[in-house]
Amino acid sequence: MVDMSLVVEPAEMKFLVETLGAIGEQAGGGIIRHVYDQAWIAARRQVADWLRDAGLQVREDAVGNLFGRLEGERRRTILTGSHIDTVRLGGRYDGALGVLSALAAVRLLKQRLGTPLRSLEVVALCEEEDSRFHCNFWGTRGILGLIDEGELDTLRDEHGTSIGKAMAEVGLPPERFREARRDDLDAFVELHIEQGRILFDEGLPLGIVDTITGLYRFKVTVEGRTDHAGTTPMDLRRDALQAAAHIAMEMTRIVEHAGRPAVITNGWWDVQPGAWNIVPGLVQFSVDLRHPDESTKQRLAAEVRERGEATAAEHGVSVAYEVVGDVLPKDMDANVRAELAAAASACNVNWIPMVSGAGHDSQV
Ligand SMILES: [Zn+2]
Hints:
Bound molecules: zinc ion
Strand content: 15-25%
Number of domains: 2
Strand order of the largest sheet: 1-2-4-3-5
CATH topology of the largest domain: Aminopeptidase
Mean pLDDT: 95
Oligomer: single chain
Shape: globular
Low-confidence stretches: none
């Protein structure tokens, strides 16, 4: 039996999502809420008001994470929430839904059940997305003591502003970043919208993530020869784009053959010199390869690299790789997963185990 007194009203969630979603919303649709900018400050102020209204102890830490705490009989804490920064022109749900559902749930638990055994804390984490600074999981890394002091100066946004300066501008003295570190956390639970279409296509409401996928990223540089597009016969060309396209297709074929959940994407391309009447001499493109099993990920990475070299040789061009990211997959805690599964079953919610193909704060 579902205890109806512990069900959050859909209308309430709709109100929270729409109110927060209006902050940073752009005229043509989409939200821009980057860490330490005006929309981010306004969003945090709104969430802080809601947390305070819910009777939670509100505080921010040294890097800008926002917390609402319900003190339990014990000091040890279960943290729940997500991020409120967005990608450029992001949606209303990414990150925000995790923060708002945590707020609604802890508020209801406090009203109905009073003081918990372990302390519960709602968190709005800062800079998960890597959209203003290239510093994924900044807030979470602050909590875990994984920020390197040098990053305060080396991490810069597109205007050259360092993250340390951006912090100072919103009243967070950057030199105090170490104070964000905590040692009282027992668990972190993060609800997140599906950023794919597995649940959507199958009409399922919930997935419980057992692993957050691993990631291998590299840049491919293919060098052929620039030639005149009119005077150079096809059989005399060393067209870098044609070779690069074949390399990308071969890599894709290998990963398609491996099947789910392996994925590969070539989302960024640069073609030089980039003219209608010149055979391309130099092409660069990105490879983003993901798999939740580390050994499979490494095997696929080796295979696509080898196949790329062989394809380049067949086309008479040279190929070079620059690895820019190699992130291990991360298994989620088995006890927390079991608790979530039991809770879902108790509420008669249909769920499936899932791999998260996207990165999240939970993996840090
Ligand atoms: Zn997210």
